[in-house]
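Re: [ENG-882] Designed sequences occasionally contain unexpected residues at chain ends

Forwarding the minimal case from QA. C-alpha cells:
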C-alpha cells in the first residue's frame, strides 16, 4: 500500500520530463563514441602524443622511449588513464604535469607512481598545499571522486621546458584566467596545445564562464590560445578535441556576450526598476536589476548562437551575468 504513492510520484516525474526540454544540440556538440566495454577512448594524435576521454573530460599523455609523461588525472577516469596508457605502451609513468589545481582535473593523480616527477606552476603547488589542510570542512576532491594528490616536486613561474627521451613539452604561464596557475602545455613537434577549462568545443562554456576566477583574463585567454601554432587543442572538456576553428567560434560568441552586456547595461533602466521594487530591500532591488540586465544580454545573444553551440539556451544568461559584473567592477 505504501509503494503506490511512490510509483505515482515517479510517473508524475517522468510525465513532466518536458520540463527539462532544451534546444536541440548541433552536430558539433557531439563527442567521439566511447567504447562501452572500456568506458574510455584513447587515440594517438601524432608522434607518440595520445589523448584520452570518457566523454566529459579530456587529458593527454606522451610516450618518450624513456617513460611516459602524463598531463592531468581527471578522477572520473583516473583508473582508466592507467589502462589507456597500458593499451599503447609498456613504459612506466615517469613525469606527471598538472594543468591547474582543480580536483576534477587532477584528483585522480594519487593513482600515479609516487616515484614520478610532478610538475606544475608555483601557484598550483601553493593551492594544493592549502587544500591539503586537514581542518578544511570537506577534504580536497571529495565531491568529484578525487583525493589528496602528490605535491609538485618541480615548479616554475613563467616557463619550463620538459625534455624526456624523444619528447619535449613547453609549459608556460601567461597570467590569471580560469584559476591562477592554469598553464599552457605545448607540444611543438605535434602542434598540439593543452589548455584546460577555457574552450568547450561545440558548446557554450560550463556555467559562469566555466567558474573563471578572473573574467577578463578568461576572455583574453582566447587570443593567447590562438597565438600558439597548433592544429589540435586538448581543452579538458567535453568529449572531443578542439580545433582552431572551435576557438575562433567561441571567441566570437564571447565578443557578442561582451557587446550585448554593454548594451544591456546602457538600456535597462535601474531607476524604472527601483520605481517598481522600491529602495527598502537592497538585495531585492539589485537582484531584480541584475537579473533584468542579464536577461536582456541573453535575449540579444541567444538567437544568433542557438543552432551553433550546445547549451546556449542554458548558460548564456549566466555568462552575461558574469561579464556584466566584471564590466561593473573590474
Ligand atoms: Zn578547473
Amino acid at each position: 500500500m505504501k509503494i503506490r504513492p511512490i510509483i505515482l510520484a515517479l510517473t508524475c516525474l517522468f510525465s513532466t520530463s518536458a520540463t527539462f526540454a532544451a534546444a536541440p544540440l548541433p552536430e558539433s556538440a557531439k563527442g567521439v563514441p566511447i567504447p562501452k566495454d572500456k568506458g574510455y577512448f584513447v587515440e594517438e594524435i601524432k608522434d607518440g602524443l595520445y589523448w584520452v576521454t570518457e566523454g566529459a573530460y579530456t587529458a593527454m599523455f606522451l610516450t618518450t622511449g624513456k617513460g611516459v609523461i602524463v598531463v592531468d588525472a581527471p578522477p572520473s577516469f583516473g583508473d582508466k588513464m592507467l589502462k589507456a596508457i597500458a593499451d599503447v605502451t609498456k613504459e612506466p609513468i615517469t613525469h606527471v604535469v598538472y594543468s591547474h589545481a582543480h580536483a576534477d582535473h587532477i584528483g585522480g593523480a594519487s593513482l600515479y607512481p609516487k616515484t614520478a616527477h610532478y610538475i606544475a606552476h608555483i601557484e598550483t603547488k601553493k593551492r594544493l598545499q592549502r587544500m591539503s589542510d586537514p581542518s578544511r570542512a570537506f577534504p580536497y576532491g571529495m565531491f568529484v571522486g578525487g583525493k589528496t594528490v602528490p605535491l609538485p616536486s618541480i615548479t616554475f613561474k613563467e616557463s619550463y621546458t620538459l625534455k624526456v627521451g624523444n619528447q619535449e613539452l613547453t609549459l608556460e604561464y601567461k597570467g590569471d584566467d580560469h584559476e591562477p596557475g592554469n598553464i599552457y602545455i605545448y607540444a611543438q613537434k605535434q602542434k598540439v596545445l593543452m589548455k584546460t577549462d577555457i574552450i568547450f568545443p561545440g558548446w557554450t562554456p560550463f556555467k559562469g564562464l566555466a567558474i573563471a576566477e578572473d573574467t577578463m583574463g578568461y576572455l583574453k585567454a582566447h587570443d593567447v590560445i590562438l597565438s600558439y601554432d597548433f592544429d589540435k587543442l586538448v581543452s579538458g572538456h567535453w568529449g572531443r578535441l578542439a580545433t582552431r576553428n572551435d576557438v575562433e567560434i567561441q571567441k566570437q560568441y564571447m565578443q557578442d556576450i561582451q557587446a550585448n552586456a554593454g548594451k544591456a547595461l546602457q538600456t535597462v533602466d535601474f531607476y524604472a526598476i527601483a520605481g517598481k521594487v522600491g529602495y527598502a530591500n537592497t538585495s531585492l532591488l539589485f537582484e531584480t536589476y541584475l537579473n533584468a540586465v542579464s536577461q536582456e544580454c541573453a535575449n540579444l545573444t541567444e538567437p544568433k548562437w542557438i543552432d551553433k553551440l550546445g547549451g546556449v539556451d542554458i548558460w548564456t544568461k549566466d555568462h552575461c551575468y558574469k561579464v556584466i559584473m566584471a564590466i561593473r567592477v573590474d
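QA comment: On inspection the terminal residues look reasonable. Residues 254-329 form one domain. Proposing we downgrade this to a documentation issue.
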